[in-house]
From TrEMBL:
Lineage start: Bacteria, Pseudomonadati, Bacteroidota, Saprospiria, Saprospirales
GO molecular function: 3-dehydroquinate synthase activity
Presence of keyword Isomerase: no
Pfam families: DHQ_synthase (PF01761), DHQS_C (PF24621)
Enzyme class (EC, first level): lyase
Organism per entry: Neolewinella antarctica
Co-factor(s): Co(2+); NAD(+)
SUPFAM superfamilies on file: Dehydroquinate synthase-like
Record keywords, A-Z: Cobalt, Lyase, Metal-binding, NAD, Nucleotide-binding, Zinc
Domain 3-dehydroquinate synthase C-terminal residue range list: 174-315
Name under which the protein is recorded: 3-dehydroquinate synthase
Record-linked InterPro entries: Dehydroquinate_synthase (IPR050071), DHQ_synth_AroB (IPR016037), DHQ_synth_fam (IPR030963), DHQS/DOIS_N (IPR030960), DHQS_C (IPR056179)
Domain 3-dehydroquinate synthase N-terminal, first and last residues per copy: 62-172
Taxonomic superkingdom: Bacteria
Length: 350
């Protein structure tokens, strides 16, 4: 199955096969540089290794994790590219989760003013979210994704077999974005998703393309986040604050776990300030609690969370804007919520 992104590139679903690499070969790149991290080298590279038969092949590995998504690592990657003889006519193959994809795509996009790159995302989060939409970059000054560019890959290949080695907690974290896509844009999908309780028996072959398609349509309509793309921020205003809060306390909280809590709270605000009904709010809350349980125990103080929200780079003039739900499947962007209702949402959940 193929989803075209305008007339720019294709997102291809299904097994990564020799035929796909034959297409890459037909582009006659001078060489291929493959970016992996320690884990994707061990678990994901073996699935495609046999197809990597370019005579000029360079494999570059970096340490995994958000803590390494910075300019220091980029510098190491750029150095290895220069030392390995990578030139303008090479293609980068980025094999990894969102961290590796964002960073290596950025490294490729800036190397000698930019070389082509292909994305093969290997986490659920990267497959349904970060690999669609052209945002690339790294963290700087402890701010997530504060340096980067918008740039398109030559293709995205999404193969759910990579998820077999992904830890269960990573799957559950990525699944929060799948739920989000349904809640903001597809009521039918939200209905189907609520039947999913056991993430070890999901048929990804339909769910992932459906989820990617929602994001693709939003991004096509508004590539630079001036309007409708903001609907993807549902759950993220409070979710990002929770994520940052836990980063400071050195307790590990995955992105999806933080935004799952954020979505419950922002659904509550949607019930208070918009037209979300109490029964829809309750369905949303109980589904998230069933799936994420008490993973997210919030012992955070409201004042700290509020300060983090007020500092978020997405808020102009320190006004805290939300993407809310009018109903499941329909988002409302640029909704202002005052301090009392935000406080009630956080306390209600705690
Ligand atoms: P994300 O933002 O998508 O969660 P990361 O790149 O941080 O991205 O990936 C999460 C973790 O999972 C990293 O430690 C990474 O090395 C590891 N990882 C990525 N893909 C796989 C996979 N298919 N199997 C096993 N581990 C993986
Ligand atoms: Zn997110």
């Amino acid at each position: 199955m193929t989803l075209p992104v305008a007339d720019k590139y294709n997102i291809e679903f299904g097994d990564v096969t020799r035929a796909k690499f034959d297409w890459l070969k037909s582009k006659e790149y001078a060489g291929w540089v493959v970016f992996v991290d320690t884990n994707t080298r061990r678990d994901c590279l073996p699935l495609i290794e046999k197809f990597l038969d370019h005579p000029r092949l360079l494999i570059i590995e970096c340490a995994p994790g958000e803590l390494n998504k910075n300019l220091g690592t980029c510098q190491e990657l750029w150095s290895q590219m220069f030392d390995g003889g990578v030139g303008r006519r090479w293609c980068a193959i980025c094999l990894g989760g969102g961290v590796l994809e964002d960073m290596s795509g950025f490294v490729a996009s800036t190397f000698k003013r930019g070389i082509d790159f292909l994305q093969i995302p290997t986490t659920l989060l990267a497959q349904v979210d970060s690999s669609v939409g052209g945002k690339l970059g790294v963290d700087f000054y402890e701010l997530k994704n504060s340096l980067g560019v918008f740039n398109d890959p030559i293709a995205v290949w999404i193969d759910h077999r990579f998820l077999r080695t992904l830890p269960a907690r990573e799957i559950r974290s990525g699944f929060a974005e799948v739920i989000k896509h349904a809640l903001i844009a597809d009521a039918g999908q939200w209905g189907r998703i609520q039947k999913i309780i056991d993430l070890t028996v999901v048929d990804w072959s339909e769910l992932i393309p459906a989820s990617v398609n929602i994001k693709r349509e939003v991004v096509l309509e508004d590539p630079f986040e001036r309007g409708v793309r903001k609907s993807l921020n549902f759950g993220h205003t409070i979710g990002h604050a929770i994520e940052s809060y836990f980063l400071e306390t050195e307790q590990r909280l995955f992105h999806g776990e933080a935004i799952a809590a954020g979505m419950i709270m922002e659904a509550w605000i949607s019930y208070q300030l918009a037209t979300l009904t109490v029964s829809d709010y309750q369905l949303i809350e109980s589904y998230f609690l069933k799936l994420y349980g008490h993973q997210v125990i919030l012992e955070s103080s409201f004042d700290q969370l509020f300060a983090l929200m007020a500092n978020d780079k997405k808020n102009d003039d320190h006004r805290i804007n939300f993407t809310l739900l009018a109903e499941p499947g329909r988002a409302l962007i640029n909704q202002f919520a005052g301090r009392p209702v935000i406080e009630s949402a956080i306390r209600h959940y705690n």
